[in-house]
Amino acid sequence: MRIDKELANIRHKFSSPATLSSYQRKKYVWKLVYIFTLGYEVDFGHMEIIALISSGKFSEKSVGYVAVSLLMKSDNEMMTLVVNSVRNDLLSYNNYFQSLALASIANIGGAEFAEALTPDVQRLLTSRDTDSVVRKKAALCLLKLFRTNPDNITHQEWAPHMARLLEERHLGVLLSAMSLLIALASKAPGDYELCVPYVIALLSRLVLTPRAVMEDYLYYNTPSPWLQVKFLKFLQLYPPPQDGVQSERLSDSLKKILTHTAVSDTVNKSNADHAVLFEAVNVVLSQGQAVHSGLKGQALALLGRFISVKEPNIRYLGLEALGRFAQLTEGKDADEGIKKHMNTVFVSLKDADISVRRQALDLVFAMCDHSNARAIVGELSTNLATADAGIREEMVLKIAVLAERYATDLRWYVDSVLQLIHLAGDFVSDDVWHRIIQIVTGHKELQSYAAENVFRALEARVVHESAVLVGGYVLGEFGYLIAEQPGMGGEAQFAVLQV
Question: Could you tell me which of 104, 102, 48, 99 has the C-alpha nearest to residue 78?
Fold first, then answer.
């Protein structure tokens, strides 16, 4: 086989390393890498790879680092030699060597590798002498090491370093540092709360003074949108700032984002701007009742626009955010702000995308209260007749729950459940029709009405089995209450149950 012959040839060449030229060593290591990517096992050549990493030439180091990242596992017994070479490159003042080493550390990972090199990566990240390009890579490398072994970073000791790192003026370094900070703060938010003022200041600089941003960081005239997104994601981990100046600065930034971000038809600009807008809305949501009412109103108005657009992803996110607003709001004004979008949400129940329909259903469920329960149950029942099987069972359950929860008149509840059985009997679970029997049994004033309406439901040409089960119990227990009415005697009741 050609691969076996080539591997044998390479093994033979490596048996006499002193006779190998630099070009030959690189060539054969590249061949091993290629063979490995084809799916064949490669279990030799490690010393040649380490020799390339230890070289003082970039062309050799680059080959060696690619090979070690692919061919050597973190638990390899020769990894100690790799660690020493990598540490030497980290401590050098050559930006190219440092970059290669950081990329290799992030790719190899492993607990032992992370434990041995995390302090060196931290030192490189915090050093003012480190080049900006290298600091970006160091931040992302430390993020990978933290994910591999979170215990290697002591948050209380490292938090001040992260705060100082946010003083960096280079936006590329800030972008990488924020990725690291969000991961760290998600694990220990209390330790990194000291970074909140820095993040608010940076966000306000981007949003309120965009002309101060270098042209290289303008994306369709939006100042570094991905950095804005990371700032906003970080702020969602914390309550509103208590300091008046910080609070005002954050409110001004959010207001500017919510009211002055112009979304265009250009796909790339639209994606970037919508990302910033949704994260700004999420910040407003995360602050709950403490957020300024003006910001909440602006966020609700913005979401009302989003759930009306053609793009299904934006509609979905808008519905999801509105659903969280509906769960958080308690004041009358906020409730009305959500309810005014109800007709648009009802339209989304008929959307071609089932994920949008599900999200709209969840939102309708969250928007329901005593003032609109009948309208919502009626609208859902209307949609139930044409809903596809993928969402019918969930819709039936939600209608039953709402009808019981907000029933001021239990007769309306009985009518609603009987209609459910008629429209979607196959999707009505046993718990639903068991519940109507329990309620009828427990309310004496309801028994006659229930018996009469069940009897009329059973007179239809097509009757679902669940309706017959309900009818069998209700008429069996309370049929005598309507037996004196014309056409509803005992024989008639027996007849409709037989059919």
Answer: 48
Confidence of residue 499 (pLDDT cuts 50, 70, 90): low
Instruction: State both tokens at 488.
Output: 């509803």
**pLDDT for position 110:** 75
- Between CA 76 and CA 81 the distance in angstroms is 10
Residue type, 434: H
Q: Which residues contact 11 (CB under 8 A, 6 or more apart)?
A: 44
pLDDT tens column, 58-67: 999 999 999 9
Q: Is the pTM of this model over 0.90?
A: no
The tally of CA atoms less than 13 A away on the side-chain side of residue 167 is 8
Give phi and psi for 219, each to the nearest 5. -110, 105
The model's confidence at residue 293, banded by pLDDT at 50, 70 and 90, is: low
DSSP 388: -
Q: What is the DSSP letter of 370?
A: T
Angle at 382 between CA 379 and CA 388, to 5 degrees: 115
Distances (CA, A) of 206 to 185, 202, 254, 279, 298: 22, 6, 12, 15, 20
